[in-house]
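sorry to bug you again but im stuck and you know this stuff better than me. what follows is a protein written twice so to speak, once as letters and once as structure tokens for the fold. mainly i need to know what kind of three dimensional shape the backbone takes. anything you notice is useful, everything is just below:
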Amino acid sequence: MFTSRLFSFDKTCYLGHYSMKKEPLTCSFKSIFLRAIGLLQMQLILHYDMTYREVKYSNLGLEDIDRKMLMGINVTPIIGLLYTPVLIRFLGTKWMMFLASGIYALFVSTNYWERYYTLVPSAVAIGVAIVPFWASLGNYITRMAQQYYEYVNYKEEHVQEQKKLPKGACHRYIIIFQSVFNIIFHLSFVFAQFPMRFVLNHYLNDNQHILFNVNSCGANISGVIPGFNTTVLTNLPRSMLLIQVESVLMGFAFLAMIIFLLLCGAAYRPTEEIDLRSIGWGNIFQLPFKHLRDYRLRLLCPFFIYSGFEVLFAVSGFSLSYGVCILGLDKLWLLILVYGLSCSIFSSLCLGLLRLPRWVCLMGGAAVHAVLLVALLCFSLCPHPDKSTQYLGPLLVIIALWGLGTALNKTGVSILLGMLYAEEKERLDFVYTIYHWWQAIAIFIVYLWSNLPMRAKLSILLATLLLACYCYWVMERRLASKVPFRLPRIPRPRHKVTNHSPAQIVSHCQTYLRSAMSALENGLDAPLTIYRYRGEKPSGMLVFL
């Protein structure tokens, strides 16, 4: 009776604490990617202009600084599987996200003093933080769904005794939480275009100058945009204007850090955090590799890779090689804005999984992308700046449909992982680490293939998508046939137990009885206290209620 009353009291306090967790988290991630995407996009356009590089960086020897920064961001995450679980369990999920947001803030701050020793280390730090950041995110969202289920069903016996959740019990909440998060998060693509639209567009040359040497666009080209003019700015932006833009982005950086620090709660109970760390750091290091024995994760790896391919293709491949090449650089912000808005709106379709089978989202997104990839393989033309406006509508429709596929794909994969491992909360960080590590591998591959012909890139995308669909079908068929999957054993926590002498036990009993009487007088409950005699076996315990 006492323990149930105490548990009810804790749950009542937890309601107010929980209600502040979900929305601040989405706002924090939106502000982080708002500044990261917006700053990177503005930097790459400014640094692409030959005049800007010569005026600003020639005396500092930083003409190729963009190449080194991109290498740091894209190459470093490939070793993320080695350290991500250790970092998450050492710092905790919340503090890992807080640290990663601080690293993004560091990247923004280095633009106030652009030197090799500030820009390159900050880019490498972002590469190091990418996999832990996203793995912590997936883990945190799924844990919030599980904790909300525990709050709603706090009277259930398995919740009060903190046992493993029944199979499928919290799937409904995982679907809702992941869908709502992606609806809000994808708006970061929209807000990230504000610096481009309201600042940089006023300094761009006209399309006839920028696209003067461009002879072909679309599927026939190799690289990004062959013949693109190296001078895209009419005049250089004022340094004070750039500082003001960077200061606004820095404000969002501090806002995200404050939100993480003050409003986001812990993903696990304190005792659970201790248990997660107490299995041994060597075991924590090995377990991500051992989880690849599970055929569910192995068969989902092609989808993990494709989800990394398709997002980067949308914001770099299609937007540049099709959109900018045909419409001009001044329409880049519009293409990415429509893409982000489409991703945000269509992420709500994943709420249909409350009624529909879970394969609908992934297969629906794959079908949309397959049709678009075949169409893009056949789409090629010569740019005509005077007639470019007639292609604006079709290109916006294509990028909006690609956003539909992205929304179904990314939200669907996150929901699927949450549903498959909903009852294994101690494995969530390993599972999401594997997911985002494969995405990091995909980012690295896209970085390497930038000079390939466009048809080769589209063919790789299409082949990866078809392989991902086949592997997913095999996984679902095995699960339907109840083929057992192999989960690695997680060692039991190794806690240090303090043995007490009989005199110490008597003293503890007296202290406990005084605190118990005081608690009962105030309408609360005293905690459970366990003592063990010195020299006795673990089974010999005295339990005081």
User: Anything to note?
Assistant: Strands lie at 217-218, 380-381, 529-531, 542-544. The first helix runs from residue 2 to 18.
